[in-house]
Amino acid sequence: MTKETRTAYSFAWKLGMSLVILAGALILSIVLGAKEITVQDVWCAIFTDASGEQLDIIREIRLPREIGALVTGSALAAAGAIMQGITRNPLADPGLLGLSAGANAALAITVAILPSANYYGLMVACFVGAGFGALLVFGIGAAKKGGFSPFRIVLAGAAVTALLFAVAQGVGLLFKISQNVSLWTAGGLVGTTWKQLAAIGPFIAAGLFIAIVLSKQLTVLSISEEVAVGLGQKTFAVKAILFVVIVLLTGASVALAGNLAFVGLLVPHIVRGITGSDYRFILPMSAVLGGAFMVFADTAARMINAPYETPVAAVMAIAGLPFFLFIVNKGGRTFT
Hints:
This protein is mainly alpha-helical. Helix content is 77%, strand content 0%.
C-alpha cells in the first residue's frame, strides 16, 4: 500500500468519525428543548408521514433551525480555512476581518432603504457588503509596506468591523429599525424556515464545491506564492475565484444567521491538527466539523437559560475568544 493510499484511508476514517459526530449533534439538538421530544419522534418526523404536535415542532421549527446551524457553520469554517490559506494568516476569520460586519451593514442599509426587499435581495446585499468589508480591510493592510502581516491585518479588521457595526447601528437609529438590526447583529437561527434554507443552500453548496475543486491550488498557495508561480499556477485567477467563494459563503451565512465570529478561526486550526496542511482534506473536514460545532453552539444557546434564548454569538465568543488569544500568544503556530 502506497503512502498516498494510506493517507486517503486515514482521512476517510477521520471524515467518517466527523460525520458521526455531526449526526449525533443534530439528533441531540432536535431532542433537547422546552418541549419533550424522543429519538423515535425524530425518526417518525423525518422518515414517515405521521402527524402530531411533536412531529410538527420537529419538521417546522427544530429541523430547519439545526440544518441552518449546520450549513452556516460549514460555510463559515470553510471560508475561514480559505482565508487562512490564501493570506497565510493564522488569525484570518470572516467575523474578524470585516466580512461579516460588511454584510451586516449592507443588510441594515437594504432593510432601511428597501423594506420590501425579498430574501434574495437581502442575500445580494450581504454578498456586496461582505466583499466591500474585505476589500476595505485588505486595502488598509496594503497601504504600507509589509502591511499584510497577520497582526496588522487583524488590527485593520477590528477597526473596520467596529466602523461597519457603527454604520449598521446608525442606520437602525435613523430609520427606526434598531430592533431588527440588533437581532441580526446578535446572530441567531430563531425562526429559520425551509424557504430561507432553499434560498441560501445553493450558494453555500456552490461555494464549497468550487473551494474543494481548487483545494490543490490552495495548498500550494498556502505554502508559498513563489512556488505556486513556479509550478505554473495562475495565482491571480485562483485568488480571485477563492475571494468570490469567501464572499458567497460569508454573505449567505450572514443573510441566514447574522454576525457570527470565531467559527472560521477556531475550526480550521483544529482540523489542521487532525488532517495536516493539505487543503484537499482541510476543506471537507472543516465543513463537517464547522457544522457540528455550530449545531452544538446553537443547542447550548437554547439550553443555557431555557426557556429563554441566549444569543448564539455570545456562546461563540465564550468558546472562541480564549482560543483566539491562545493563537495570538503562540504566534499562530497552535496546530502547525
